[in-house]
Structures are given as C-alpha cells and as structure tokens.
Amino acid sequence: GAVVSQHPSRVICKSGTSVKIECRSLDFQATTMFWYRQFPKQSLMLMATSNEGSKATYEQGVEKDKFLINHASLTLSTLTVTSAHPEDSSFYICSASRATGWGETQYFGPGTRLLVL
Amino acid sequence: KQEVTQIPAALSVPEGENLVLNCSFTDSAIYNLQWFRQDPGKGLTSLLLIQSSQREQTSGRLNASLDKSSGRSTLYIAASQPGDSATYLCAVRGTGNQFYFGTGTSLTVIP
Question: Which of B40-49, B54-63, B65-74 bottoms out in mean pLDDT, i.e. has the lowest?
C-alpha cells in the first residue's frame, strides 16, 4: 500500500524559532499534498493545499507568511512554521494524493507533534 | 464551505454491543467519504472509503453507509471490543480534492 512519512515525529522548540516538517510519499508520486492541523481534543483542520511546482493555496485564516509550504518535488512537501509561538503547538498531519482506479485517493502521514515553549 | 458534524461526541458501551456512529455534512456535492480511526496522540488509520456513487462499504465488523442526498453517513460497528476504543473521524472529500473532517466521536468500549 501507499506510504506517507513525516519527519520529525515530534519536535520541541523555543518560542521565536522556525521549525520545518517534511512530508514524503515513499512509493508513489503525489499530485497534491495537503497540510492539516489538529489542536487537542479537536478535529483536523485543513491548512493548505500544495501542488508540485506551484504556490500553495491556503485556507481562510491561515497565515501564508507564517506557515511556509514548499512542494519541491512530486514526493516531498515541507511545512515551515516561522517564528513559532506557544499557540502554534499542535499536531500537524500531511496527506498525499495518488491517482488510483477510483480517481484520487489520499494517504495520510503519521503526524508531527510540535511543542513550542 | 462544507461543514461536517458527528454525533455523538462521546460514546461508552459495554463489550459485545453493536453501535452506530453518525456523520452529517452540509454540501452533498462530494467526491467520497472516508471513516478514520485515531488513537490518542497518533495519526489516522483509514477504515472505510465510500465513493459518492456507492451506498455502503463493509470491512470485517465495520459497515459504513452513505446517503449523499440527505448528507448523512453512518458507521456501524458490530460486536464491539475494547480494542475498538479510539476516536472515529468522518471526512468528506470535496470536488476540489481536499478533505473536511468531522468533529469526531470518542468511543470507549468497557470490558
């Protein structure tokens, strides 16, 4: 089956620093990748949609200058949380879209837990 | 914008009981609907995927139904087990390829 990995799985950083999270599709080329955020005891909220070689599309209320997304290849998308603050502490999950017989199927990564002190 | 709601928010049942989780969505123009399981602090495990043209899908003790016109889906779990304890998320995929997630149902199966 299709596998999506995220790195790191957990990161703790000081307030004001930047953190980069990688999302990789290990055995397929992803036409589109998505980034989600999940606060404690809440559901996943879509942050942005990322297509290889083009600018990401951000959901309303998500600051594009704070959450930088780079989709440099068909197997890698990165999310950089710039000047992180404690309120950015959350669980970040990516998904990668793959063409299948049913059209596009999304596969989710295991998530990255970010704690900003 | 698509809004996805799940009822109940939390459910506690004794082992062996059959149960139903509900999901409703506001925009019936969907591509598919997927049920996920999420264990505490973990990522998502896909359980069942129903295409917009389908009515239901079954996998083992799980059965998911979809009524697109009324904006509803149900996840039926037969003969529940303590290992089924987790949060169950319903997600609707829009025509733009993005997923909209429900609020989740936290299930506890008591041994």
Answer: B40-49
Concatenated DSSP letters of B36-60: EEE-TT--EEEEEEEETT-SEEEET
CB-based contact B31 A103, cutoff 8 Å: yes
Interatomic CA distance for residues A87 and A75, integer angstroms: 29
- Cα torsion at B96, B33, B84, A95 (round to 10°)? -20
Three-state DSSP class for B83? Answer: helix
Q: Residue B76 to residues B70, B85, B91, B107: CA-CA distances in angstroms?
A: 18, 14, 16, 12
d(CA A95, CA A36) in angstroms, rounded, equals: 8
Q: Which one of B31, B93, B101 has the shortest CB-CB distance to A43?
A: B101
The DSSP letter of residue A83 is S
Of A49, A93, A106, the CB nearest to B43: A93
**Residues A57-72: tens digit of each pLDDT:** 999 899 999 999 998 8
Q: In this structure, are residues A26 and A94 in contact, taking their beta carbons and an 8 Å threshold?
A: no
What does the alpha-carbon distance between residue B66 and residue B35 come to, in Å, rounded to a whole number? 11
Which residues have a Cβ under 8 Å from the Cβ of A60 and sit 6 or more positions away? none
Among residues A115, A44, A92, which one has the least CA distance to residue B99? Answer: A44
Residue A15: both structure tokens together: 């307030």
Distance CA B33, CA B93 (A): 6
